[in-house]
C-alpha cells in the first residue's frame, strides 16, 4: 500500500529592507550683487561654482541558508558602505564592517503532511510495494513490485492538493496504475529474481535485480541493473542491463547524475555453504547514457593478512562462520555527499559505515558505529512485551548496536552528516544464527543484570546477539 502526501510549511515573517541610495547635492548658485544707491548701479555678483556630487551609500542584503554557522535556522546579513568607485555595486572593499548586521531566524519552518492520494495494489504478502521514486516530467511514480520481478508505474498527475480526512482516508484508492516494467522480458536474461530497488535521475531510471547462481542458490549469483529512458509523453524505453555484484540491494544516482552506485549485499545462502563477497558497483553515466560495464569496489584489502587489515576496528561486527572480511561485510544502502565526491555505505549486519571516494573508486575508510549504552538514564528502554505497560528503564551492562538500513546524507556548516534508520538485523540462517533471547544466555553471576534476564517483565524477552560479549571466552 502506497500513501502520497502533500507538504505545507508556514511562511516565516521577516522584515522587508529597502536598498538606500543617498546622493550628494549640487552646490548653491551665488547670490546676485546688491544694487548701488541711486546714481551709479552696483556691480552684479558672479555666480557661485557648482558643488561636486556626493558619494552614494549602498546596502547589500544576503540571505543566509539554514545550517549557517552563525544562524542555524538561516537569516539575513545586511552590509552597508559608500560606493567609492561609483559603479552602483557595493564591492567587498567598500563594506563598512562595523555597520554589518546579521538577523537570524529564530526557528526552523515546520513540516506537516496530509493525505491526498493512495494506491492499493490488492496484492498481499508478496512485497508488492517496497521502494518508490518519482519522475517529475511525466508525473509518474515508479514502485518496486519486488517478488514479481516488475516495477509498477503509477499516475500522479490527477492528484489534487485537497486533503482527504477522516474515514474517507481509510478506503482511499485514487491513484491509477498506468503500466509495468517487466524486467525479465525486457532484458531476456535467465535466472533473474526479485527487483530490489529503483532510482530516477533526470530521464534515466535504474532498477536492481537479484539473480540465482548456476547451482540454484536464489540470490548468490551476480545481479544486474536495468536502465530505462524516461519521457514526459511515452512509456519508458529499455536501454541495457549491466552486470554487478551478488544481491544488488540498493541503487542510488549521485546528485550530479554522473554515476550510479549499487550496494551489492552478498548475503549467504541458507546453510551458509555459499557466501559471496559484498561490494559496491559504480556505473559511469556519460552524456546521459550508462556505461555497459560496472567497476566493483570490494573489501578484500581488509581481509586478515591483507594490506589494510590493521585499519579494521575490532568494533566492526564480523560474525559469519569461516567468512573473510570481504564476505562478511554486507552493503545495504548508499547515500552520496551533496558534492557527489563520496559515497556512504551502510554495512547493516556489521554495525558500520564505509566511505568510498567515487572518482578514485576506492574505499577511504570503514567507520565502526559502536554501541549505545542502555545503562544511561537518557537511553532508557522498554525491554519487555509481556508486562502490558510502558516501562522505560535503564539497564547497566546492556548495550545495543545501531545496524543502520536506509541512510541519507546532507551538508551543514561545510560538514557532511548522515541520518540513519537503525533497524538492527541479527544473522539468523539455518546454517548459522547469532540470535537468542536474553533468558537463554549463560550469564556471568557478576553481571548486574543476572536476575533481570530471568524476568519476562524485564530483560528475559530481549533479543540479543551471541556473537559478541563473551570477553573471556568461557561460554
TrEMBL record:
Domain DUF7151 span(s) in chain numbering: 57-104
Keywords: Signal
Domain (Choice-of-anchor I): residue spans on this chain: 122-475
SUPFAM superfamilies found in the cross-reference section: YVTN repeat-like/Quinoprotein amine dehydrogenase
Claim: Cell inner membrane is one of the keywords in the record: no
Signal peptide residue numbers: 1-23
Statement: the UniProt record of this protein carries the keyword Signal: yes
InterPro entries: Choice_anch_I (IPR055188), DUF7151 (IPR055575), Mesenchyme-surface_protein (IPR052956), Quino_amine_DH_bsu (IPR011044), WD40/YVTN_repeat-like_dom_sf (IPR015943)
PROSITE patterns: PROKAR_LIPOPROTEIN
Highest taxon above the source species: Bacteria
PANTHER family to which the protein is assigned, alphabetical: MESENCHYME-SPECIFIC CELL SURFACE GLYCOPROTEIN
NCBIfam families: choice_anch_I
Name of protein: Collagen-like protein
